[in-house]
Design brief:
Blueprint (H helix, E strand, L loop, with lengths): L9 H11 L12 E4 L6 E5 L6 H16 L4 H17 L1 H12 L3 H21 L7 E2 L6 E9 L2 E5 L7 H13 L2 E5 L5 H18 L6 E3 L4 H9 L5 E5 L2 H13 L3 E5 L4 E5 L5 H13 L9 E7 H17 L18 H16 L3 E3 L3 E2 L9 E2 L2 E4 L15 E7 L2 H9 L3 E2 L1 E5 L3 H8 L8 E4 L11 E2 L2 E2 L6 E2 L8 E9 L16
Bound molecules: nicotinamide-adenine-dinucleotide.
Enzyme class: oxidoreductase
Subunit structure: Homotetramer.
Protein name: aldehyde dehydrogenase (NAD(+))
């Protein structure tokens, strides 16, 4: 049997892919959430918002599944995640394409997002055989002290539009091997990729014989997110999105003594030093600042260029900005796709006006490719030469705007670098070991990610991911981020016949 040809329209192709991924047509045929492809602005699905009571019911189902799942040995839990990774491998092309259609990422970035999901599955499978606790020296004779890590319960996952499926998988893969169940509230802008991911997960769960209801998907907006945040049966809430969202979520979770993993906005910078390899800088800056149309939390937004190389570097950057191909992300050669929606375009234009008012010189930033759809918004990425780090530069505008500033003193540029409320990612371009090491030292970058001779974006899953200050302080993904999805018990065991007390305390009763 030959496969049906891929349809031409974006809506028809979306429906075709969703069917291939096992999502029933009824799931995106009608409902209050209208999904538009940013590529053309056309409607590609209508999805029902879950009724108000659904979040509580979903948490209940997840909790029931957790009670069984926590007793399954961790390496066996890893087998579920391994099977899910196999589903992702088998369907990488379709799911990556769906990311492109729903979010507007260029093809290699859509596929890269799914590869990131596969990578975290591999990581989590290995981790399922390595969850460990310490044995600690005790002052009491014939005693042993150790720590044990237990699953924590139901983990709530709230995700943002710009990594519609990878962010969920960073959390879910770790939570599942840790022995937790999950409830996912995806961005209301990206329910289709969430439905597809859930269908792939269900297929893996069936093969693995996992308890029913182990990973729940609840589609809705802020109200659904709030219901998840407030549910006392959810001990950990991992929330990815804007700092404004984190300001709401953090205190609400804390008010009921839950734990939150906050992954919020960034305002990432690069410092270009006199010794920097400028060829490398141009390439590194181009990807970090213009990639994903500036819609990554780690997008390079501020570039500090040393006086001695400013006139050599900035014209080259302007040239790259002027020549980068903006357009339909499905087309070969296009590097900058659309913004997610019209509101995002308006926020970008307003930021550029504020930058001009603060003395900035704006290159680019105008609407591009208005032939691709009245409701689609493409822009030429903006490079803005700023005389100072004005107030607007201290804000995260989720669009391709790069503010470029001069520096001459290393002390001053470090202060400017850290002089914003956010603390996600950072980079320095230098061949000077002293500068590189100072940037990575305690006096240097105050961010959760600090790089040398690469831009601030494009992290690998092996490292812990997250940032400080208004970025929220959470860590996900690699290293020991798994600990946030578990609870720790310290155990002391007395294998002797006496009962010595710690700190020399005596308490002898007759
Ligand atoms: P957003 O804050 O508008 O929405 C994110 C999610 O939070 C959505 O699912 C939304 O429904 C939900 N939400 C909003 N208010 C809520 C509330 N009061 N309670 C519960 N849930 C609520 O963000 P966005 O526009 O989708 O994404 C872009 C933002 O996300 C940028 O600021 C970007 O930097 C950030 N981001 C951060 C990371 C990171 O790891 N640090 C990764 C990706 C995106």
């Amino acid at each position: 049997m030959t496969a049906a040809p891929r349809p031409d329209s974006i809506a028809a192709e979306t429906a075709y892919i969703l069917a291939r991924l096992g999502v029933p047509a009824a799931a995106f045929a009608e409902g209050a959430i209208t999904v538009r492809s940013p590529i053309s602005g056309e409607v590609i699905g209508r999805v029902a918002e879950a009724p108000a009571a659904e979040m509580s019911a979903a948490v209940g189902r997840a909790h029931a599944a957790y009670l069984a799942w926590r007793k399954v040995p961790a390496p066996k839990r890893g087998e579920l995640v391994r099977l899910f990774g196999e589903e992702l491998r088998a369907h990488k092309t379709d799911l990556g394409r769906l990311v492109t259609l729903e979010v507007g990422k260029i093809v290699s970035e859509g596929l890269g997002e799914v590869q990131e999901m596969i990578d975290i599955c591999d990581f989590a499978v290995g981790l399922s055989r390595q969850l460990y606790g310490l044995t600690i020296a005790t002052e009491r004779p014939s005693h042993r002290m150790m720590e044990t890590w237990h699953p924590v319960g139901v983990v709530g996952i709230i995700s943002a539009f710009n990594f519609p499926v990878a962010v969920w998988s960073w959390n879910a893969a770790l939570a599942l091997v840790a022995g937790d169940a999950c409830v996912w509230k995806p961005s209301e802008k990206t329910p289709l990729t969430a439905l597809a991911t859930q269908a792939l997960f269900e297929a893996a769960a069936k093969k693995a014989g996992a308890p029913e209801g182990l990973s729940q998907l609840v589609i809705g907006g802020r109200a659904a997110g709030e219901a998840l945040v407030d549910d006392p049966r959810v001990p950990v809430v991992s929330a990815t999105g804007s700092t404004a969202m984190g300001r709401q979520v953090g205190p609400r979770v804390a008010a009921r003594f839950g734990r939150s993993i906050l992954e919020l906005g960034g305002n990432n910078a690069g410092i270009v030093c006199p010794s920097a390899d400028l060829d490398l800088v141009v390439r590194g800056v181009a990807f970090a600042a213009m990639g994903t149309a500036g819609q990554r939390c780690t997008t390079l937004r501020r570039l500090f260029v040393h006086d001695s190389v400013y006139d050599a570097l900035v014209p080259r950057l302007k040239k790259a900005y002027g020549s980068v191909k903006v357009g339909d992300p499905r087309e070969a050669g296009v590097l900058v796709g659309p913004l997610i929606d019209i509101r995002s375009f308006e926020a970008m234009q307003s930021a550029l006006d504020r930058a001009r008012a603060a003395g900035g010189t704006v290159h680019g930033g105008e609407r591009a490719r208005d032939d691709l759809g009245a409701d689609a918004r493409y822009v030429r990425p903006a490079l803005v030469e700023m005389p100072t780090q004005a107030e607007i530069v201290c804000h995260e505008t989720f669009a391709p705007i790069l503010y470029v500033m001069r520096w001459s003193s290393f002390e001053d540029v470090l202060a400017l670098h850290n002089g914003v409320p956010q603390g996600l990612s950072s980079s320095i371009f230098t061949r000077d070991l002293g500068e590189a090491e100072r940037f990575l030292s305690v006096e240097g970058s105050d961010c959760g990610i600090a790089n040398v001779n690469i831009g601030p974006s494009g992290a690998e899953i092996g490292g812990a991911f997250g940032g400080e200050k208004e970025t929220g302080g959470g860590r996900e993904s690699g290293s020991d981020a798994w600990k946030a999805y578990m609870r720790r018990a310290t155990n002391t065991i007395n294998y002797g016949r006496d009962l010595p007390l710690a700190q020399g305390v005596t308490f002898d009763v007759e």
